[in-house]
Amino acid sequence: MIAGLYIKGNSALHRAQAGAKILAMVALGTGVFLIPDWPVVGLVLISVIALYRVCGFGWPVLAAQIKPVAWLLAIFFAVQLWLNDWQAGLLVITRIAAIVMFASLVTLTTKTSDMLASLERAMRPLKPVGVNPEKVSLAISMVLRFIPVIATVASEIRDAQRARGLDRSILAMIVPLIIRTLKMADDVADAIEARSFD
Amino acid sequence: MIRFENVSVQFDARRALEGIDITLGEKRIGIIGANGSGKSTFVRLLNGLQTATGGRVLVDDLDPAKDGRKVRRHVGFVFQNPDNQIVYPVVEEDLAFGLKALKLPKDEINRRIDEILARYDLSAFKTHPSHLLSGGQKQLLAISGVLVMEPRYIVLDEPTTLLDLRNRNRVERAIADLDQTVITVSHDLDLIAGYDRVLVFENGKIVVDDIPAKAIAIYREMMA
Amino acid sequence: MKTKDIVYIALFAALTAVLGLFPPITLPITGVPVTAQSLGPMLAGAILGARRGGLSIVLFLVLVALGLPLLSGGRGGFGVMIGVTGGFMFGWAISAFVIGLLIEKFWNSLNVVNAALSIAFGGIVVLYALGNAWVAVVAEISYWQATVGAAPFLIGDVIKVAIATAACLAVRRSYPLISKSA
């Protein structure tokens, strides 16, 4: 099975309820957009960075979270500098960094299974409007089950296409992949029904 | 007891089965025939995966077309490709899948899972990702997923086609040890050689209904 | 919703994840990385239709939100989802839905032209409208400026529209999944 992005630990944040962490994330995300001063948002960002230390994560973990957006932040800062002033630039990038860092922290400190359990709880009130939590769980499990199967089929097709000299064509790969996996999906649906699910 | 009363199945343009009248009460029934002869359609009628367009099917006096859910509890179905039958990413989750649908208590679910894993030497793989099992282990897991439901009938649709010889033999032994009534569709003629009764399908009809030795001999001649 | 629909939804969510495993191609001159993953929403909408296609991308996003590294480059979690490119993430689900809606509308007379236009409208116009709006808000720039900034990525998307169009038409011939009455 695919490992989640969770990193083991025993901090208060690790032990906190997944739902509570998600609510905190939404609150922080909204909050930093309501604050118009970069020093205040900067303080929020510093607190978020401090939380990484509290959770026992070192600098490499921290850097890995911000790296994917680093170049975007640089561009945004430059654009603000050009359009307005450096204060506006700092406000934009501290805000984004605080949100991204905190959101990543929620993911890093919460097991996929706990996240799933909260999702199932959150879905329960939606039952009357036609959301069936069991079917959603089934679908989630099936995706995890399908990923390695599709990856295997993809590499089989790639080998077969390579033997025919078609290895550069994405289309020659995707069409047979879709058709083969759709046939598989029909069989899986039969198998689920045969195992008395409805 | 399984009864087919003048059953036919019509697909859009093609007649897949025609006027099937038969009663099956033996413990081991083999079904053979060329591709497209109607044998898969025949067994899919047994649990309502396919519904008859004419006549009716009765499994222990229940019609799969009407009481699909009830019938499926008693008719387990093992498909050719275990990859398409294993629904969950972890072995024990997959085994629990059908049992949860039956709304059994948790300890009963666990008891059945442990028992079946021990039976097929899969206990060590209980929490393993299902896609990392070998082909033979996957087919045994697929069979296990059906057996934990404790069905009275087990239908196997070409269960050994994708397996190597060693795994084929493992699956053959596993099938031989089953207490249930077994209906096997197979191109692997050795697999059904020791059965009680063999049906040969051709063009949507049962053309031979005999003991394996005779049925297989006639089939070989037909295919020559 | 039938069992088969649930399986198809899961299948295209998984397919989108697998497309993220393919290494990105870097376009010459601009240096913009093009990943195969954004083909997922186009294919889901064009092959499964609006409802199932949209739900399959929602399902994919749920798995990403749960903390699984299914986005290309092994990324995942809330950080990417509500970060700068969040609008594109949620936009994927909407674009799959819109593509599905249009393909369903044209289903009986589907050809290269209307299929490509449907996929381009959902997969480029709708997607960038949402994605750029999000970027404009978080970066405090105008919508126009965000659009200019996103322009280099369009080349990759045009290629993907072409691939998705061809795939959709090929699959329609051998495995039509959108009902003719729709």
From TrEMBL, chain A:
It is a multi-pass membrane protein. Keywords: Membrane, Transmembrane, Transmembrane helix. One of its GO terms (cellular component) is plasma membrane. The keyword rRNA-binding does not apply. Pfam families: CbiQ. CDD domains: EcfT. It is found in: Membrane. The chain crosses the membrane at residues 18-35, 41-59, 66-83, 89-108. Belongs to the CbiQ family. This is Cobalt ABC transporter permease.
UniProtKB/TrEMBL annotation, chain B:
PROSITE patterns: ABC_TRANSPORTER_1, ABC_TRANSPORTER_2. Keywords: ATP-binding, Nucleotide-binding, Transport. Pfam families: ABC_tran. The keyword Nucleotide-binding applies. Residues 2-224 form the ABC transporter domain. InterPro entries: AAA+_ATPase, ABC_transporter-like_ATP-bd, ABC_transporter-like_CS, ABC_transpr_CbiO/EcfA_su, ECF_ABC_transporter_ATP-bd, P-loop_NTPase. SMART domains: AAA. GO terms for cellular component: ATP-binding cassette (ABC) transporter complex. GO terms for molecular function: ATP binding; ATP hydrolysis activity; ATPase-coupled transmembrane transporter activity. Belongs to the ABC transporter superfamily. This is Cobalt ABC transporter ATP-binding protein. It comes from Thalassospira profundimaris. The lineage of its organism: Bacteria, Pseudomonadati, Pseudomonadota, Alphaproteobacteria, Rhodospirillales.
TrEMBL record, chain C:
Keywords: Cell membrane, Membrane, Transmembrane, Transmembrane helix, Transport. It is found in: Cell membrane. InterPro entries: BioY. GO terms for molecular function: biotin transmembrane transporter activity. It is a multi-pass membrane protein. The keyword Aminoacyl-tRNA synthetase does not apply. The chain crosses the membrane at residues 6-32, 53-72, 78-103, 110-130. It comes from the Bacteria. Coiled coil: none annotated. The keyword NAD does not apply. It holds the Pfam family BioY. GO terms for cellular component: plasma membrane. This is Biotin transporter. It comes from Thalassospira profundimaris.
